[in-house]
Design goal:
By secondary structure, the chain is an all-alpha fold. It is about 65% helix and about 0% strand. It is built from 3 helices and no strands. The longest helix is centred in the middle third of the chain and has 36 residues.
Length: about 100
Amino acid sequence: MPATEERVSVTLELPRRTMDRISELAGLHNESLTDRLEAIVEKGLDAELSYTERFDRLSEMYRARLKAEGKLDQTDEEVLAELREVRERIANEPYPV
């Protein structure tokens, strides 16, 4: 982190067990508690963003598939009718013994 970046103090209550784990990690990394907590927060933020990006990509892929199948603009009634049709088809399949 750049030394010129503005810093903000935060007060946080954590369970003792969590604080002990953070202290242990700080010792393993030869860091202060503040540095270790900052690293944990940054890593969590990075993970959160990557999840959001993944879901956005999945959403785009799903919309593209629906568009290619001509189903992107289906009404609720059309979706439900299609689901009923699929359910009936499955219900009428012979049951494997």
